[in-house]
Request: fold
Amino acid sequence: MKRLLPILFFLLFSVVSTSQDSTILWQNTIGGSNWDILWASGQTPDGGYIVGGWSASNSSGDKTENSMGAADYWVIKLDQAGEIEWQNTIGGEGDDYLYTIALTHDGGYLLGGKSESNTSGDKTQDAIGSFDYWLVKINGAGLIEWDVTIGGLNHDHLWKIKQTADNGFILAGYSNSDISGDKTENSIGSFDFWVVKIDVSGQILWQNTIGGTGYDELLAIDITADEGYILGGESSSGISGDKTQPNRGGVDYWVVKLNQQGEIEWQRTLGGMGDDDFTTVIQTGDSGYLVGGYSVSNISGEKSENALGLDDYWLVKLDGTGQIEWDNTLGGNHNDRLFEVLETTENTYLLAGYSTSMASADKTEGNIGGPDYWLVELNSDGTIRSQNTIGGFIADILTTVHQTTDGGYFLGGYSYSSISGDKSENTNGFWDYWLIRLSGILDTSPFSSELIEIYPNPATTHVYISSDHNVDLFEIYSVSGVKLLQFTEVSNGVDISSLPAGMYLLRLTSATTKTFSKLVKY
Reply:
């Protein structure tokens, strides 16, 4: 078990490459003078974004409210350009850690995480145990509508929320509480999966404690097409309790399918002889499942490839009954840790996490600082289609990714880097939220600025190129990656008069290289 706290080892690595940021449309570093750790994000119906995590900062930098305890929920609404529209610091006198946000059908948001606070600040109920699930419902303007504390007498840690078709919510986390408080079943092992179904006002409808006699952490959930649930977490349990398959070694991925009433339909243990740390599961368009995390295992158990570095991304594709279709180990020569995966509108898979690897094995770009954001796009058969390394000179941890409505991508994480590499703003404190809006194209290689110039930019009717390269192909794309125009003769300029005003991406190809550049059309 290696829950991903801010990385301390990044100071051991030196800068070895120049970053490549030609697909970045905008970015924003948001924080106060202390720690601000982003864990959750989503695109809102107005085309903006909701982001959240936890903050220990007082009013400073971008933060407009003081801390209520040691750490508070900190949620921010951004417009389409990444500018802050509103923010809210929410907490009690103790530690309150936000890990998940669900967009609700009424245009608001349900925030979730864990809290040790008693009644104080924004918290209306005392703590039940050492940490409890804490849910806060806010409206579209960020104002609190209700909150509820759910837990037993020990430790209860909420990781994910999804809204269900009946306007209620399914909560996924883990617990070592016995029967007490809201908990109706005893702990089976040291920690168990704890799934709780609540109605639209936060009242518990049903719950299920699922585990073996070892350590079982529930870290992700997705609602399935049959209105059931796919659970994913990591387990050290052997055959015991609810667990029907033996441990492979260390911790393994543990995937459990529930029906609509929360009853187990099937389960699958996936792992090798080493530690296999689970982080994410989704149902795919073919009614199968994609399960991911990071692994140190060599070939053993369900793992079909040896480790490439210290930790590698490890993806497993399952069919609808939990049978393995393929798996892929992805990484370089050091640490590569996957946080999230999504299925794109192009029927590919986008993986998001961080890497400290140099250009090696599957990694095609060098390390920029310590850990960098590392995006990898896979074809539907698990083979690599494209990738991008994004970061500054110190440390950048990517935790969440979404495909935007125009086919681009929104990245969210936290950064300790000041201006360097791809990073355009200094930090406000220790760690800050770092948000990036990308086009839909990942695999880019820019010319050196001394070798190419595109002018005028912004432009109205024509664009001209000055370059030491012989440009063979000039292509214009929308920011979501749709090709709009193509020219093979560019010596007399390129006519863009047919394009509406807006931002575009230009791709120029020569015999030896290619680059993307941004163009604004008046």
